[in-house]
Amino acid sequence: MPARPASVDTLVIGAGLAGLSAAWHLQQGGAVVHVVDAADHVGGKAKSEQYEGFTFDVTGHWLHLRDPGIRDLVLGLCGDDHFMRIERLSRIWSNGVYTRYPFQANLYGLPPEVVHACLMGAIAADRALPAEVAIADEPENFADWIRFYFGEGIAEHFMVPYNAKLWGVPAERITSRWCQRFVPRPRLSDIVAGAVGCNEKAMGYNATFLYPKQGGIQTVAEALGDAVGRDVIHLEAEVVGVDHGARTVHYADGTRTTYRRLVNTISLTRFVDLLGAAVPAEVRAARAKLWATEVVYLNVGVEGPLGQPDHWIYVPEPAWPMYRVGSFSNANPAMAPAGDSSLYVELADRETPPEALVPRVTEGLIAMGLIDDARRVRFAHARRIPDAYVVYDFAYHDARDAVHGWLGAQGLRSIGRYGDWNYSSMEDALIDGRRTAAELLES
Ligand SMILES: Cc1cc2nc3c(=O)[nH]c(=O)nc-3n(C[C@H](O)[C@H](O)[C@H](O)COP(=O)(O)OP(=O)(O)OC[C@H]3O[C@@H](n4cnc5c(N)ncnc54)[C@H](O)[C@@H]3O)c2cc1C
Predict the structure, then answer these.
(1) What is the 433 CA–ligand 1 centroid distance (Å)?
(2) Which domain holds residue 20?
(3) Does some domain include residue 331?
(4) Which of 425, 428, 430, 435 to mutate to test the pocket of ligand 1 (most atoms within 8 A of CB)?
(5) Is 420 near ligand 1, meaning CB less than 6 Å away?
(6) 12: helix, strand or coil
(7) Residue 201: what are its φ and ψ, rounded to 5°?
(8) Do both 126 and 186 map to the same domain?
(9) Same-domain check for residues 224 and 275
């Protein structure tokens, strides 16, 4: 492990994709940068675990690269041959049947009364929709937004229950402002076409993705870590305090580093806490309004093949403890031992110990046709991701702006999915690092 210097020019806290990207882009501009991370590996959430011949990411981490510069960077560092290019295979399982994703544009195959309710609701919503809707005029809460655009049936049969399971809070408590980019909004003609089984359009922001041929998603972070230089990445260096007045970070082992410039990528709430007494009361009050829900999931090793081909399957019905089941090995068989398969099962029930949910999950996997016998489950290991989904409730925007406003005035930058405090992708984290580097190099 490289020795941590006592004094550096630019210090980046966090060796996830945002921190590594910031460091790499700063280096391209000639800056001298050091990166510190509490973990013993680079990658943050983009990490992979290997055991018993299986490789698991932190649930599905599928790479969507739309930005040409980031695409060139990732393919340049990893090598074009590093990735498989995969067409999304993803469906919804409800009412005991599978329908294609997105639900709203693929109602075909559902029980007739469900299709009828969804179509009548969509027609009523479409009739009520003004010709032009400015974003500011959209309903404020997410449940109303769903009904406004899709109608009552689609809301009730998929969107409202699914989102409540995913976010861990009812859609009424979430603002609609987070979702414009992520929720596909087909036209009524597409909804009708999908209801009679002739919608051929692949919708949504993730219709194709890249995935490493070997080693899981962490290989992307490792390539970036190599490019940044292992001599300037300091692992097992947990920051426990930041004295920005003295331009000093303090580590759990009692050591410290002084810096000229600081870029933070750990969670915004934790970062504010680390800044301690320097934070004014109103900023602390704003920080207290920011919160996130945990993701609890199971890494499941399965003996033999799976009965369904999907990369991930949405499970909206409240009767089942999981909201999504994905398969690494369906995307890339090298993620499991030859002939075997792997699943990740994301659990809506965050309270019950996950081990206690395994029998009901297994029942679900059988009902979904993924496995034919509970004995095919070789293991189901529980994992938790604290603060995984930032909750966009009604306090979110003002509170987050207040915190960033104050940090900015101190010359502090807090970026990445958690540093910025948003819902975003790996590519967004890489873009954030690049943008921040450009701003710092110009300043
Ligand atoms: C369940 C889930 C599924 C996802 N699926 C996808 C997907 O399919 N596709 C996609 O593109 N994106 C996906 N994402 C998003 C993706 O994981 C993130 O956008 C991206 O990894 C964020 O990178 P980051 O660097 O901003 O944050 P992080 O990866 O969280 O990095 C922050 C780093 O800070 C370190 N750290 C924390 N505290 C301290 C401390 N006190 N001192 C020092 N270091 C510290 C951590 O160890 C970590 O390495 C998913 C996220 C989740 C939670």
Answers:
(1) 13
(2) 7-47+217-290+392-442
(3) no
(4) 425
(5) no
(6) strand
(7) -75, 135
(8) yes
(9) yes
Q: Indicate whether residue 44 lines ligand 1 (CB < 6 A).
A: yes
Residue with tokens 């609609």: 176
Instruction: Give CA–CA dist 60/49, Å, rounded.
Output: 13
Q: How many domains does the chain fold into?
A: 2
Cα 383 to Cα 50: distance, rounded to the nearest angstrom:
14
Cβ–ligand 1 distance for 249 under 6 Å, the answer no
Tell me the pLDDT tens digit for each residue of 263-318: 999 999 999 999 999 999 999 999 999 999 999 999 999 999 999 999 999 999 99
Distance 416 CA to ligand 1 centre (A): 8
- 240 & 127 share domain: no
Exposure class string for 399-423: b at 16+ Cβ within 10 A, else e: bbebbbebbeeeebbbbbbbbbbbb
Same domain (yes/no): 28, 164: no
pLDDT tens for 67-111 read 999 999 999 999 989 999 999 999 999 999 999 988 999 999 999
Q: How many residues does the chain have?
A: 443
53: left (phi over 0), alpha (psi -120 to 50) or beta: left
Q: What are the phi and psi torsion angles at 62 (to 5°)?
A: -95, 135
Structure tokens at 315: 């499970």
Cα 106 to Cα 93: distance, rounded to the nearest angstrom: 12
Percent of the chain with pLDDT over 70: 98
